[in-house]
Specification:
365 residues, seven-stranded mixed beta sheet, 52% helix
Length: 365
Amino acid sequence: MSRRTKPRKRRGIVPAFTPQVEAGAPPGAAIYLGVLEPADAAFSLIQYGPSDATFATPSSVEEILAMLEEDRVNWINVNGFGDIEALKTLCGYLRVDPLSLEDILNVEHRPKVEDFGHYVLVVGKMIRNLPDDEIEYEQVSFILTRSVLVTFQARPGDCLGPVRERIKSGNAKLRRRGSSFLAYALLDIMVDNYFSVLESLGERLEEAESTIMEGRYNPAFMSVLQRTKAELNRMRRVVWPIRETVTALQRLDTDLLEDGLEPFLRDLHENTVQALEALETYRESAASIRDLYNSSISNRMNEIMKVLTIISTLFIPLTFIAGVYGMNFVHMPELDERWAYPAVWGLMALIAAGMLLYFKRKRWF
């Protein structure tokens, strides 16, 4: 499928890189499509079998291809799309369709699975927390063959470290399985990381709810809540197709998926469903917190208006009395009496006290 327009900019993000994509680009054109400038390409190669594992950082694709071994699992990780020609060379060796390379380079692609016979393309999304309390979304694409798994990332840094550690430590379950089990393990750690992100978003919602219950309002409260709600909505748009992707993997009829993988894929599917259920719960909580905030603000305003109304009502008769004796008529008998001034003040105090007592009995405050 050809890409005929530039990728749409997400609101609130100023892109550091604007790809030049002409309308009418041919299908399968190897053009990077992303918001940020692509990083320089960096490669790593992990090869393992039941008895050992080797880790290497080749400097070129040609060096990687010379090191591949058919009788071992070869995990090639590509970090950065700055060298398109190197990606073409690697995909050409694996006989990857140009349309697949196009999907890999479009880092805003929807998650999916496609079976091309001699390889399977899986497009997934990695979500992780950053130290500055931001959430990063990154596409991770998989090219799965019988003995080779290639993962593509636009930028360095990922959440796949635990899988590398399991390979290094000699994890028997992982070491004795093939490349398709490795692909499952990577997808599983990506989905597990969804729960870490959801936990951080849930903590934000709990803090927001506590703020409302304790009455600690601040001008930034609503903007923080809206950002959290926007993150939940964005995350839902990512996790929902991931569930469809795992379902498609379960139904895939190919020899590239080794025997005995079905129970693990079922477990992965259940995890995605749980992540979606947690997402829906948090989205409902965010909406409820917003309604609670609006209701508390409205109640607070009503309390303020009630106090101001009572004060205004108290001053109505007092203003009337002050107005009467402020008319400056010559013949006003009370003005000549020595007790008139304190008497008027006493009358005004009695009226105010009587009205407050009446309001109290009516439970108006």
